[in-house]
Structure formats: structure tokens, C-alpha cells
Amino acid sequence: MYFTMVRLEDSHLRERVTEYLQQFVNEERQLRLKEVLKNRTRHVTLVLEDLFQTQNISAVLRTCECYGVQDVHVIKNRNDFEIHKAISMGADKWLSINEYPHKEGNVKACIDRLHEQGYWVAATLPDEQKRTIFDIPVERKTAFLFGTELTGLSDEAIKYADGNVLIPMYGFTESFNISNSAAIILSHFTERMRHSTADWHLSDAEFDELYFEWLQKSVKDPDGLIKWFMQHNS
């Protein structure tokens, strides 16, 4: 489902291959890739637990890409993870999608990984303490956890999350559509984040790795080009 790319752990070698691939990408495209990367962030991320409606999945991915959120975490249990290309508009191509296949403990494994990366994990559901999205500090890395369309988050996800958060509502309807919820939360969080003192930009290493990845997605037969370079520059 996703683009398969060459990964080079040696940063010096990756730099050389990057310079080689740039020959096949016009300067305007190179500048566009770098400009988007300057606004990319891993300071905030979304976790999607067992969504089943492809249109919702695809809309959420498109929202993440539009707001510059690089990573999305997908927990799969009863439902497969499928993308509706007409709705995602190719957004998934530019995201780092981390999947957690259906097996015992996959919810905890996802949240544990986020904790290791320094995220505060917020479960999106009604909160007795009335903590809203406006109360979440943007200075700390935050992961927003969304549950399936009909039943919401699992008990396990709520158990291991660090806290709850809700979107203020003033009508009769109890909740927003999940894609709308994601858009509202990311709109408020990322806007506040970008005007804060938080260090939300990609690191130099992350910037270079993603630029190398995106160059591959911008040329024809990247695998063949890289193999040729390796054979003639060993």
C-alpha cells in the first residue's frame, strides 16, 4: 500500500546519493520539498485505533498532511487499514504511517513507543475534569488518540493514556465526526504550537532523511537509479 524506498543508515553515503538524485529533480521541485519540510513537525501526532471507514481514515491523513504533521500511528484490530485515494488526494505518500498489527498488547505497545519518544498521550473522549483542547500545553510533545467510529476508544487505550481531552460543543449532538475532530484539534494545536517557544521543527537528521525519501518519491525508478549509483560509486 505504501511506497517502498531505499533506506541508507550511513549519513555520508545518503548525502552523496541525495546529491545524485537531485540531478533528476528540477530546482523548483527541490525547493518545494525543502519548504514543506521546514514546516513539518513530529511535535504532535495522531493515533487511530481500529477505524473502519476508509473515507474517515483518508480524510484524517489528508488533514495531517495539510497541517504539517508527519507521523500517524495506526492500531489495527478488527478492521483493516485502507485508504480511499480520491479522498486522501495522495496525502499518505508524504506521511510516515506506523502500523501496529492485530495481536495481543498492540495498543500498549503503541502507547509505550510514544512514551519512549517523549509524547504525552491524550485520549479524545468526554472528560469529567472538562479538560479541553485549549488546556493542552503546546510546549510538550503530544499524541492525540482517536477510537473507532461507533464505540470510541478501547478500555485499554483509555487505561494507558496520560489523560483525556475534549472539544467544546454547545449543541444537542454528542460528538463530531472523527475526521472533523482531528481537523479541529490539529488546527488549534498546531497554530498555537507554531506561535510558541516549543522546538517543533524536525531535527537536521530527520530533515535529511525525509528529504532523501521524498526525492525518491519524485523520480521515476528510484530503486534503479540508486542501484546504478551504488554499482558505479563503490
Describe the protein:
The protein has 234 residues and is an alpha/beta fold. The protein is built from nine helices and six strands; from the N terminus they run ααβαβαβαββαβααα. It has helices at 11-21, 27-38, 54-66, 85-88, 106-116, 155-160, 178-194, 204-216, 222-232, and strands at residues 44-49, 71-75, 96-100, 120-124, 142-146, 163-165. A six-stranded parallel β-sheet has the order 3-2-1-5-4-6, sandwiched between helices. The longest helix has 17 residues, at 178-194.
Q: Per the principal axes of the C-alpha atoms, what is the gross shape?
A: elongated
Number of strands: 6
SS element count, helices: 9
Major sheet attributes: 6 strands, parallel
Runs in which pLDDT lies below 50 for 5 or more consecutive residues are none
Describe the structure in brief.
42% of the residues lie in helices and 12% in strands.
List keywords for this structure.
234 residues, alpha/beta, six-stranded parallel β-sheet, 12% strand
Strand-helix topology:
Blueprint: H1 11-21, H2 27-38, E1 44-49, H3 54-66, E2 71-75, H4 85-88, E3 96-100, H5 106-116, E4 120-124, E5 142-146, H6 155-160, E6 163-165, H7 178-194, H8 204-216, H9 222-232
Parallel strand pairs: 1-2, 1-5, 2-3, 4-5, 4-6
